[in-house]
Amino acid sequence: MASWLTLGGCIGIACGACRFQPGESTTSTAGDAPTLDGTTVDAPGCAVLQVAASGNHACARLADGSVWCWGDNERGESGRDPTTSPSCSGSACEPMPVQVALSARADTLGLGYDDSCARSGSDVYCWGANASGEFGTGSMGDSSSPELIAARAGATAIGGGYDVMCSLAGGVVSCSGGNTYGDLGNSSSSGSLTLATVETGAMVLGKGYRNTCAIASGAVSCWGDNSEDQIDTSGQQRLAPASTGVTGADQLVVGSYHVCAHTSAGAASCWGDNGYGQIGDGTNASPKTPTVVALTEIAAISGSGYHTCALRTDGTVWCWGENYTATPAQVTLPARATQLSSGYVHDCALLIDGTATCWGGDSYGQLGDGSMNANATNPPTKIAVCVGT
Questions:
Q1: For residue 363, with 0-12 CB atoms within 10 Å meaning exposed, 13-18 middle and 19 or more buried, which class applies?
Q2: Entry pTM
Q3: SS3 category, 12
Q4: Where are the chain's structural domains?
Q5: Which region among 22-36, 202-216, 315-329 has the lowest average model confidence (pLDDT)?
Q6: How far, in Å, CA of 368 to CA of 382, rounded?
Q7: Which of 310, 309, 180, 184 is closest to 241 using CA atoms?
Q8: Domain 12-382 has CATH 2.130.10.30
């Protein structure tokens, strides 16, 4: 799941609309990953302030408040009518960034597996999958056009999974949708078309394909599927928040069957399925309890599906799991990263030079360069970025 974030470069096809003038600059404010060395990025002309990846798509927020998305669009998550989108891998997709018809200036983005949201002030707009009532509006039906979601006003984090969307506002985690895996968290196996309050006092929200997790006072609780002991060692589905026993956490990654937590000390631990080495301990053995990742000085973590990544304090990016190795290995990037976001088989980063890049799976055009290369280990590619027009 991608949370609300900041910073970045500029998608070239939108540069004419950017409102920054040469010499103006952008700085990171609040976000999952801190700026490095307090760096201010000079971005004359135009800039991408945020890139977010989830599922098989990604989106970027530009300096002028516009939102551009690319990748899978079967459910309208890239903001275009799927019937007008090109076809790739048996799905509708947008292999190049397209502007979302958002009527308001976006302040930040939050993506789910096959839905996307943007916040403007306290207003939240979402588009994409809503066939199970994920939006929480009381109605069903996918939408390729942004809808104002009044019930989620003021959300500071948002994300969706298989058929559930959750948001965090004022310390309260609220979810709606089909509840196939029990990740709605309302102590029921039934779905809900309107928001159900799940947990209070939360500071961080993590949403995966089958699970939802939250941090309250440093303690991690999760609900939903537990078939790989990604919540606790019972192996039993949890229909309401259950303690994982992990404390001192400040960030979360929720994959398909694994969970990772980051601490302010710069360490991370993971638990659950490890069939692809997504736990990061150099093995493929699935631990019953949280296991420390073999990496230090971690500033932020990201991940989805069967892999995990980390942004270190020196701006390097390291990943492990599916399409990587069981031990954290550095991703070769052209510059230091300031922000990191992960989709199911692709990852994206903002770099210190103000450019955005994505790498990994591209079957749905999620690398945003129009190539749609089926190779799951595609190297980092620049997302049609321009600086200074």
A1: buried
A2: 0.88
A3: helix
A4: 12-382
A5: 22-36
A6: 8
A7: 184
A8: yes
